Model the fold of this input.
Amino acid sequence: MNAFSRRGACPALSAPMQTGDGLLVRLNPVAGGLTPKSLIGLCESALRHGNGIMEVTARASLQIRGLTPESARLLVAEVDTLGIAVRSGVPVETGPLAGIDPQEIADPRPLAERIRAAIEEAGLTARLGPKVSVVVDGGGQLTLDAVTADVRLKAVQANGEVFWRVSASGNGRSAKALTTVDADAARDIAVAALRMVAEKGREAHTRDLSERQLASLAGWRSFAPPSVLPDISPTRGEISSFVAGSSLSALEIGETGGAGLISPQVGLVGEMSGRTEGGAVERPRPPIGLFDLNTGHALGLGLPFGSMPAQSLIELATKASELGVTEIRLAPGRALLFLGLAAYPNLQSSAAALGFVTSPTDPRTRIAACPGTPACASGRIATRAIAETIATESADLLDTSLTLHISGCAKGCAHPGPATLTLVGDENGAGLVVDGTAKALPAGYRPGYDAARGVGGILAAVRAQRHQGETVAACLARLAGVAELYRRN
Done:
């Protein structure tokens, strides 16, 4: 087994990461999902070798916590015995319903596999950082619009043919649109972008590419019908030479210079499916509830705050097996999809009794919370207890506009980005950060055991002052003295 990975790296099965509650490993099954028997076996391993906490991440990875150096080695051996093949290398992600969703524009798996092979052939895996990733999104009921990536490929249709919209650095809303091309060109552009990133070092991402480099990627010749896509072929053949493996200098690939970024193909909006009118990306559907498949249905169930005791998962997987479930897939958004079941209401009721999230409107889905105390030695506050109290007492105010992050310490593991409201534990108690991350300086404090009441005071003020039709986030933005509301209630 490799040495333990540093924080910020990806704690793969072969490279556990040290956390406040021991070592953490993360795995993604090559097959895309697990049989109920395999999931039960993993959970039993987690109980034997870890602290019995299982997690599904926002990016649909399975995490096992609380391992020791010796128990991590035993866990790896047992995963091999279970016959679970796990992915390694640069993540090239597809949706959890890829290939079985009747609403998807295209099955993204063949293109994703071609990109993985091209990355390996180009020798890029060792040269790229552990957080570099590619998304190949075929569309459908569960898109990957909420998942950030260095390179995004999104299926669109024009004149009865499938093309791929390529963008860089961001999620479905924030990524920079580059071009729309056929599958061959999409693969080559993705690999070219990763080559450019690799040239900048293992800490680099596509956000670090210059405008000239992005323009070079955007200038790839489109293969769509001329009436739909403008011809913006490169004038100097930068990409084709680069993909072919030539040793172009930074200047030759557009590292420096004053040319501006080629503008996105705004003329495509309305002519190609995949976006709503005006180019806005629809809010992704939560992975919770019933989904129609090409054959049968899938039931999505969420893990509250992305975490559940292994024993609860064992009981749910056992019930699922009894009901005919053949496969359990991990879904972005901290959820599991159960395929092949004959009587979904029975599984849904069993899941609810065990504490799983069974409704997309469950207020717990609006809160990000790490394990906190007592599960994590780094935690200073009981994050999950605080989150449960807020979800119970202020459910009507946890709308989709609000992001609430409760972090046991300043590392902010559960939600690295900024949130509308963040509670962070430190030596002073539970600090409140408004529109920031857990690393920011809190604007006010109160004891950790009483933090939920402080947030309740803020939300009570929102309830009293919110205009009709106004979102909670919009109301908070115009409220004065939010930190004082937190401290005094």
The chain is about 30% helix and 20% strand. Residues 238 and 466 are 54 Å apart (CA to CA). The chain has a mean pLDDT of 86.
